[in-house]
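The freezer alarm interrupted the setup, so I double-checked each line after restarting. Inputs confirmed:
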Amino acid sequence: MLDQIKRLREQISTQLPSDIDSDGPPRTRVAVLIPAYKHSVLLAEAVESVLAQEAPFGIAAVIIDDGCPYPETGEIGRTYALAHANVFYLRKANGGLSSARNYGIEFALRNFPNLEAVYFLDADNRITPTAIRDILGFMKSDDKVDWIYPNIDKFGIEWNGNYTTQYSRLLHLTFDNICEAGSLVSRRMLDAGVRFDESMKAGFEDWDFWLQAIGRGFLGANYPFFGFEYRQRAESMLRDSNRTREGILTYIRQKHKKLFAAETLLAWEHEETPRYAAIGMGTYAVDLFTDPTVEHAKCSLEDFVTRFWAAKAEPETFGVPPFLLWMTAAHREALTRLGLIHNLLWLGERIAQKHHFVAIRFERNNAKVGIDIRKISDAEPLADKPFGWMCTFDIFSTCADDASDDWARSLHKPVPSPNVIEIVISGPFTSREMQSTALSPTNALLATLGALRDSGYRLQSKNRWLWRSVYFPNRSRYFELLRHAVGARPVMPRLAHASNPLRVGFLLPIGSFGGVEKVAYAVAQALKNAGCEVHLFLLGKPVYNRIPENDGVFKTVNFLADDYPLWGGPNQFAGHDLLMGHDEAAKAELIMGFLAGLDVVINNQAAPVNSMLGELRRRGMKVLNYVHVLDKSKMGRDAGHPYLTLAFEHVYDTILTCSRDMAEWLHGMGVPDAKLMHIQNAASYALSSKEQEVALAARRNRPQRDRLNVLFLGRLDAQKGIERLFSSVRDLRQRSAPIDWKIIGSDVMDAGAGGSWKERFAEVGVHVEPPVFSSRHLNKAFAWADVVVLPSRWEGAPLTIIEAQRLGCVPIATSVGAVGELIDHGVDGLLIEATDDNVISRELTEIIMALSEDPAALRRLSEAAAERGGSLMWEHSVEPLVNQLKSWFPDRLPTLPVETTLKLVEQTAPTTPERVPHFERFSREAAPKQRDEISEIRPLQIAAAGSAHMHNLRN
Amino acid sequence: MTVQTSYKLSPVAKSLREIDLLKEPILLRMGIDHDELPEGLWKSIKILGFEGVKDDAAMLSDSSGRKFEMHEAPLCTLAVLINPVHRGREKRLLDWLKSRGVVDEPTVFEWHAGREIETAGLIIQKLASLVVFEARKITQSNRELLALRTLNDNLQNRFAAVESFVDRQGLQPFDLAFSNEPVSSSSRSNVLADASFEGVSQILPVASAGVSAIAIHFERLMQRDDTTLHAQLVTLEDMCVVESWVVPLSKLGQGWNYLGLSRTLAGLRRTLSLRLRIEGMDDEMPLLSLGGLQPLDMFQVRDAANDTPLLKNSLAMQIWCGMPGVLLPSWANYLPAQSHDARGGGFREMPMAVGILELADLSNTDEISFDFAAILPLPEERAIGCHPPSTGITIGHIPAACPPNILRISSSAVVDNEESKDVDFALVIASDIRNARQLFDEHRAPGAGEGFSGWISVTPGEEPRLNAFITEQVGVWQNIYIATRMKENPGDNAFAWAKFRNISLMVNG
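Predicted 3D structure, all chains:
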């Protein structure tokens, strides 16, 4: 800043001779606009201070009498205008301060062709004789600056406030109006149309003015020796406006919603007061950032040390990042590659505020990505070499002030004296990424501490040198302003990419292999292909079970890694426990920070987060809820996420359903049709047409066999109808039917009252194989099977059916949930309509028997199934969603999809007229399929099967 | 615009019409019948005929031709309309007005039938110039009012300070407000030697209000009489030099040296910058001590010429504070300031320096010639003798003695001999003798940057004070003119030992 002042003084000294017109009075380059209303006497003082200006250029004083009822105002204004060539008196009808200032601006622009700036001087304030000369020079010395604002030097009720710090938009938006109206404003700003809001008559119109300027890309700067004198009396308009502050602020926030958006504030934080300092190890270079993946400032360690002590001495004027990180750039890049760097910083920040130091360690694991947080103690000592350290500026500052560094030096020990938490990050790190560095992060940390402690600046930090009173918050604590502004703690340090893609967050309770996850991943892939930037948020167990096909889909993976209940709450809705935003367990600030910076969130059955979605929506985020299945309670009562959806219906912009059935149910329960969008499920993983053809050809060319291969794939639990399956298997085994069984699944989640299902199946001679998740294993299982059975008690729209059909594996399923939407009974699969367990088991047995005896029917069903399964594609299914996003965010998504969906799927697969996927938004006009009429189904069954055996199916 | 009334004013004798004329501007007509004037003109302003002077009263006539006596000069005679045939008769009227103390003679316009519009235009032009002139005077008044208000604020604060001083039972505080102790440096950089000719500057870490003294620390210096330390204290918000010191090095010592202010700074708080330079020495510059490394570049010691930091240190210094506006305590051992700029704003009456009085000289040498000096500086009396001629006036001048920010020049007028006849005295501020002469002759009113005290008659034994107020401040230095004449003119100028004594200037700020 002093450099700028120096430049200014040089400029002034060189400008003096040339700036004075030789052929007449100096031209007006600055107009001082003085709105006058009921300050008739003090007005003269303000005008006098303009007339006293010592400047080598013309300065005009423009008095705008805003319909002041005191005749004296006019008398004084006219008198000065008569007496001085450079004083102008304008009289207008009363319209308020904004209107008066705007009036003056238009007058100045019309009448002073050489105008370079205007200065707003309230009628009761004053400026010193050198003010305009100095501040115009100061402004012109930096082309990036378009307004200059003063420190506040009040007379009357005397007070001097230090407003000297590098201008910060973050501070200006989140703290207070740091720019007094008595500022110099460039002509560029006026030409750009920045004006005072004339509807604002209760104050803070100047704040709004600056926000307009910020919105148009202009920046301000403080001149520390401005010479502005603010008359403070016991009452003022400003005080009045402070009384109505909240109301005005609400208006301002609404008007400048984009400026107050979390992503905007984050970007300013990154630019102006970066939250993290990553101190290089051995390089003496310091990276300063909020988001390390975005271009950011750097400085030398020496500069950092200077800033550190400056921040200690004058904390509201100078600052350093509030969180310090010691980690190599290579390790940061490894975390970036895995999409974990933001999450690590977020967790590190959260933990560092509660504990002295945070150690960071990597663990290699190709099967999963995860976070483990553990407290270091005698029982759990530190690992040999941490990959990084984090701590707060406050802790490090205390260490730097400490008489001894023994306490910090104990970080070398397995159980250090400071309170240490270790974050262990597991993931598919490469061997190179797992390599440690020559200088350990612990040594780097201690070396940094040594540099600070040995610095000559350390002595000066005890004295305060700026004499004006502190008003601003500490510059190293602007992150708290950001937190407060977005209602978050801490705020995820992720900035928008330069190209500003639409950022969509997928919220999931866990990152396992369930259908909900698979659908979420597939939709994420499709949205990514449509041009979105997709992020995964896991609110429960901090583990993401890796599916290699999904690598690279999510830009980032984020773990809440907190004790967060995935269900329940102290409030009740339709027999469901639920959380509301004000409940402590909702962890409002934590969740707001976790999800900050997104444009869209899609909640995929993460129940507690519903409580915060309303707040996110209020802050401009679009909120979607993805509903899959109406669950059952233990007693058979309808339950689950659809009910939570009803409870929170008003907070969703759109509700996605995987079936028309679910959409109908929600509509029937009171959800407006306009909010409902059916996304047709498709296979969860990619399969090239060539692979599909090969598999189907293999099936067709399979030698005629007497035995039927039957597959069950899923959890061995009540929902999946495991008792029904068991009963059928047992019957068929007892009959010695020609059936080969492959049961793949796990009964870990619901062992039931009868002990392990695995053991019970073993008792009837069927081996239960462990679950498979990879596409290769799934393909293998479906290729082996002639039929796949799903005797479920309830379902959504199971992916297993679609994936099985795609490979010609015929689904036999109970007609629950949206299963009927996936199977055209007797055409590409078979439905069991019964609801009684015994009947279902018996029908299942009979169907299997029938198919085992009728290979022709099986083949026909198989062919039709393959055709149907292959026709469903996610990019078609998500088209209405993409269109919806485009309508919400025009220009944020490309017109054409960037990539094809699920890359390996051939896009030209035909769709049969009978089975046009429901690409369009689900329409209420579409007649629901009548599935319950056996009389209608039977002819289809007969026609499809073409077998006499099928007659018995329903008899 | 002032209303002067004579001692002859008698309510009983006053007619209603006369009172009317003391309340509004009028036009006078001479040799023109009321009916000759257009209706539009006489409906817009009162126009009265001047018929002559009888028994020291003006005879005026109204629209109906009715005559009445006017004892007082009208409040504001905008102009006199005269029939060209009667040209010359206006002198009677002007003399009468002058005898009533009217300084600004009304403008006389010839009235030609058929050229009424042109004449009206001239009147409007005159009126417009009057309005502008009045506006300037009002703004000047505002300026003075502002200065008074500021002065009042300062006085309020100073009185409050005095009250608290009394409450402290006379114990003037003299507290160490800030100390940046010297540190030993291996580099021992000599900032005064490294700096340009303009020396070094250091922003102070305390507000101006309350600063009593600043101590700087020399690690080494040669105590020489021919070399001086020049120190200035400048406020950065308005770039005012609030205090300065010129101290021979012989009076400085190693260690702390206290630069005491004329009085503790008062008024609005400003940021202070201390500027130090050594004059008269090219080698072996004194070694100023430095404080520790300074992380805030604003407070690093800088080259005063280009404001570039010379080092990453600030100067070693102590700042002592006391009660605003109060002199340093007598027990404090300090180097006194040379300037008196620390007194803050407001009006200040400054006596004219004796040396300047000696510059006084005769101006109208073509008119005045005596055997002795007509203009005689009398420094021992702080006076200038100005001997009046028996006829005409003696004009003396003091060249470029009136600074731009002056509000008023004053002087006592003395006739220093009992046997003298009465003498008229006058003061003028003007740029040259031609303008001064016009003012002394009362041919016109003072313009911008000018001032005229008016003539004041002085009888021996009296010592009235003459005051010439500047009409409007201009940014240049002006000359001061003094003049005397015999009240009876021509008159006996023997023993007319006329003297302007104790000439003083009132400045603002």
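Quick read of the result. The first strand of chain B starts at residue 25 and ends at 30.
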